[in-house]
Design brief:
Radius of gyration: 21 Å
Largest sheet: 7 strands, mixed
Number of strands: 11
Strand order of the largest sheet: 3-2-1-4-5-11-10
């Protein structure tokens, strides 16, 4: 009887380990994975000032997704540390998410070692997210790897999300020969917001104008107010205040896909 009882315990223990291992594999497989793409450009035109990505537009969506169990990788055109727009680090621009970012040594270390955009593959991710800042208007808008990556996500029925200035990276993205944004409802940093920050004549192009020129149906709300637009797989947000809204819409799409 003792041998039978011992055997039963051993079998039960092995079964528990097997079930646990299978559950872990299942959870890992079902865990959603999103690629964040940041700029590598740090010069604000010919002003002599610095630019880069806007902290809030990275931190808010990052934590919104991370806290919901999404795995996130980060890539940049050059790899390594992406430049942060100095103005986004000003105390006046601080939010709970940026304060969390400032103290997040794990994330700060991760940022120092971003993947090169040329080395990442759409097949490894469920969606892509582009934070803004003025930097993307100079490099990502014309980056061939970025353009091809967005096209790959979109044609493979995966969400593509952008906020503030990053919808500008769609400027040269085409699907089957037509601009991706043609006939799509979109938003992004408005002409009036660009005028308000005094950079209308500094940026390489005005995002609102570029989207409309490519056939998009552009809409906006009052300057600096939260606003996000979803048109199928394409999700866009108007300004820094819209970052979390875009992340929420992206998360909803990810959760709806089994």
């Amino acid at each position: 009887m003792k041998k039978i009882a011992l055997f039963a315990i051993v079998v039960l223990t092995i079964s528990c380990f097997t079930v646990t291992a299978n559950a872990q594999k299942l959870n890992k497989k079902s865990m959603k994975k999103v690629l964040f793409v940041l700029t590598s450009h740090d010069k604000l035109g010919n002003t002599g000032e610095k630019t880069g990505f806007w902290t809030e537009e990275f931190a808010a969506p990052y934590y919104e997704l991370l806290d919901k169990g999404v795995k996130i990788d980060i890539a940049t055109p050059l790899g390594g540390q992406p430049p942060i727009d100095p103005k986004s680090e000003d105390p006046s621009a601080a939010t709970e998410d940026t304060k969390r970012f400032d103290l997040d040594n794990e994330l700060l270390s991760k940022l120092k070692n971003t993947f090169k955009l040329a080395d990442v593959k759409e097949a490894d991710y469920d969606a892509v997210f582009y934070p803004g800042g003025h930097g993307p208007l100079w490099d990502l808008a014309i980056d061939k790897n970025s353009i091809a990556l967005i096209e790959a996500f979109y044609t493979n029925n995966k969400p593509v999300a952008f906020v503030c200035h990053s919808p500008g990276v769609l400027k040269n993205v085409k699907i089957n020969g037509a601009f991706l944004v043609k006939g799509k409802k979109v938003t992004g940093f408005s002409n009036t917001e660009e005028a308000a920050v005094g950079l209308t004549d500094v940026v390489p192009f005005l995002l609102e104008d570029a989207l409309q020129a490519n056939g998009a149906t552009y809409s906006k709300v009052a300057d600096w107010q939260p606003y996000a637009v979803e048109d199928g797989l394409l999700i866009t947000g108007q300004n820094p205040a819209s970052s979390k809204l875009v992340a929420e819409k992206l998360l909803n799409q990810l959760n709806s896909k089994k």
